[in-house]
Amino acid sequence: MIEIGKKFKKILVNFTMERYMLHLKNTRYTPENSREVVYKARDLASDMNASIRVARIAKKFVELDVSVEKEDLDKLVDKLSPIGPIDNIRHVLEEEIEKEKGIADGIFYFNNERFWESHEAFEGVWKKCFGREKEIVQGIILMAVAFAHAQKNELSIGIGMLRRVLEKLGTSPSKYHSIDVDRIRTKAIEMQQENKLTTFEI
Questions:
Q1: Helix spans in 86-194 (H)
Q2: 80: which of 16, 129, 169, 182 lies 20 to 30 Å off by Cα?
Q3: Number of domains within the chain
Q4: Are residues 134 and 168 in the same domain?
Q5: Structural domain boundaries, residue 145
């Protein structure tokens, strides 16, 4: 009976936690350090009710995907400061945004190496698309996801996704709103041939 009570309490506590993307300034880490950073973050926050899922490493920041109670967010950020000073915090919420805003957000996040957030923004756009447009947006999403995998030191998964990027983009028009689709196609082919992922702007 006590065990059931403990489990229920844990479920209740997790229900009150909020999800955030923490961006800490990066001065020394590379994607190869992704797991090491996750373990370090978990150790630093071990005395808190916080969940640290993954670390994605970009050139300028370390992105930590975390859940914590809202009132403990500042405390968590302080505890994680040995990894790097805070640069940006984004509260992850289920929200419906206008298609044009989703495209603008997706481009901004992609061009700033915030690939998980770019994929989320474009997924919102994708839900509002039909036919061929849906395929083009899915190709852009897959490119963002490929880079998000690379930031977790899952380069082979990211490179493997390039084939699907090219399948989805197919022979679509060279522009999607302000996005240069030809550039994405060309970069995907180049990266396949070189067997590496190199960030670029869309």
A1: 99-111, 115-126, 131-150, 155-160, 162-169, 181-194
A2: 16
A3: 2
A4: yes
A5: 99-194
Distance (Å, whole) CA 168 – CA 141: 10
- CB 196, CB 155: distance < 8 Å: yes
Residue 42 in domain: yes
- Cα(107)–Cα(48) distance, integer angstroms: 35
Q: Which two tokens stand for residue 183?
A: 């550039």
**82 inside domain:** yes
| Count of residues making up the chain | 202
- In a domain, residue 173? The reply is yes
**Strand ranges across the sheet with 50-57:** 50-57, 61-69, 17-25, 86-91
Place of tokens 């994708």: 126
Confirm whether 159 is domain-assigned. Answer: yes
Is the pTM above the cut of 0.90? no
